[in-house]
Amino acid sequence: MKSVLVIGAGKFGHHLAEYLCEMGNDVMLADENEKLIDEYSNQVTTAEIGDFTVKSNLAALGVDDYDYVFVCIGDFQDSLVIVDYLKELGASCIVAKASSLIHEKFLLKNGADKVVYPERDMAYRMAVEYNSSSVFDYFKLSEDTGIYEISVPDTWVGKSLAKINVRKIHGISVIAYRYEDRIYAINSPDYVFSADEHIIVMGDKNYIKKIAK
Hints:
By secondary structure, the chain is of the alpha/beta class. It has nine helices and eleven strands.
């Protein structure tokens, strides 16, 4: 179980706080909007109302006690101020939400350990998924690397992982397969590919795109 502080109860922030709480974490949701806190307080462990661009209000939350602090504030200036104060107050890991590339750049300069850009990331994920009828899901790991759920290539059906030698020939790793609604890890080179399954592969996006075609 992790101890998490989510600052900002907008669409992204309150969903993040709710999901983290459902996963068994201790979550505090904080926002200056009393109406939002009243609406979502029953979905998290605790909730707090206040203007957290004021350093003393932020300090009162005991930010250095949390494993993660998520800053989900849409306002450019306010999010920079909060991240800066969090760094000064000793927050151990600050994850901030950006609304633009310049916002991302300044959040990192102000002390954010990681920046997420949900709109851009979701747009790219959808573009990848709908660009090919063979790609069903996607998770970005870096600019060049990702995890993809794809159809089994026709030439692989009935053959084992070892026989195809996927990693050496294609430069990717096959890590799991999906059958119906369940995902199973692939732990043996003797795994035989089937046409009625999807496979979960990890590697360079350009190599995976060639296979997905």
